[in-house]
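Bumping my old thread because nobody answered last time. Still need a sequence for this structure:
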């Protein structure tokens, strides 16, 4: 380890400098783990967290150099005999953080989705015009290896979200039916996670146990004529939640935009059909879900925009009008002017 004498001489100012540098290091590593190293440079809007952390680190190093020259502090970790431990602190620990964030803390598929989306947005800002075929630029993008890689990232993100999650936290409330209660005070209740029916001793105020079907831990609490049942922990199988379905639909929609920019219109339409399938499933359960309606509106807009590009004017106008109608339900009118202009173009 660093020699004891060196450790004893380490001042509060020196420790503060190391702490600031390590904070900046960790902040940059977090953004790289989340968004990708190369993608941070082209991210739009600019990733101010990564830029801010980089500037903080540079300014701290410059200030530390001046302070050391002035004799106010001695940077012990910069000495030759302590360079190994400097590498452990400022390179080894960030590497561990990167692995922890990338493979444990972030939702499955999020890094791949972010990398694909950042690239797609960057190319769209440079080349994309609604309703206009990209011609040679589209062909060039289709042959660009980074664009092909972005498509694979979208596919990996969709696959990861399609597997769902085994981390469960679901609560359901059931009405107590005394006529259906057995002589020993137990009543049939459904597991909130998998729906398996099992008997619970509702004569107790509260209790817990496990679902024999999905493996979730169950806790119940009786309150008046109701019993609240919570399933939590890790089940034996993964469950695709509404959040997963929304994420999948969004990824498909953005993949469709990338495919459309590559002039792969048939594949783009397939991606939009897949996105619409997941959103329609959610809207069948909750027709007033504004987030789902907003995603649906964007999917329909993409359909219209592709139809316009292929000179299918009647279909394009119908899709644009459907998109406007959905926006009116959500109260989001930011894109109304664009859609109305496109409607005029295809009328």
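Sorry it took so long. Here it is:
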């Amino acid at each position: 380890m660093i020699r004891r004498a060196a450790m004893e001489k380490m001042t509060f100012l020196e420790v503060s400098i190391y702490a600031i540098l390590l904070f900046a290091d960790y902040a940059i590593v977090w953004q790289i783990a989340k968004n990708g190293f190369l993608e941070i440079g082209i991210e739009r809007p600019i990733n101010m967290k990564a830029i801010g952390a980089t500037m903080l680190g540079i300014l701290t190093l410059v200030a530390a150099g001046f302070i050391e020259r002035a004799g106010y502090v001695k940077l012990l970790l910069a000495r030759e005999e302590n360079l190994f431990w400097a590498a452990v602190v400022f390179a080894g620990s960030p590497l561990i953080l990167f692995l922890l964030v990338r493979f444990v803390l972030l939702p499955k598929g999020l890094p791949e989705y972010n990398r694909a989306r950042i690239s797609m947005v960057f190319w769209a800002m440079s080349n994309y015009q609604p309703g206009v075929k990209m011609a040679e630029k589209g062909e060039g993008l289709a042959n660009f290896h980074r664009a092909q890689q972005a498509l694979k990232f979208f596919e990996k993100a969709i696959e990861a979200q399609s597997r769902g999650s085994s981390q469960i936290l679901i609560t359901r409330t059931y009405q107590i039916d005394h006529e259906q209660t057995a002589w020993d005070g137990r009543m049939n209740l459904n597991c909130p996670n998998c729906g398996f029916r099992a008997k619970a001793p509702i004569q107790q105020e509260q209790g817990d146990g496990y679902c024999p079907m999905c493996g979730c831990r169950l806790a119940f609490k009786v309150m008046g004529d109701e019993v609240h049942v919570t399933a939590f922990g890790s089940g034996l199988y993964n469950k695709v939640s509404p959040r997963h379905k929304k994420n999948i639909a969004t990824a498909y929609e953005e993949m469709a935009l990338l495919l459309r920019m590559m002039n792969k219109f048939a594949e783009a339409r397939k991606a939009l059909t897949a996105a619409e399938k997941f959103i329609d499933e959610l809207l069948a359960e909750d027709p007033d879900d504004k987030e789902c309606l907003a995603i649906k509106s964007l999917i329909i807009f993409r359909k219209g925009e592709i139809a316009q590009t292929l000179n299918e004017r009647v279909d394009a106008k119908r899709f644009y009008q459907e998109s406007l109608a959905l926006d009116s339900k959500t109260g989001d009118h930011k894109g109304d002017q664009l859609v109305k202009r496109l409607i005029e173009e295809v009328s």
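The chain has three domains: 4-105, 110-163+242-346, 168-239. Let me know if any region looks off to you.
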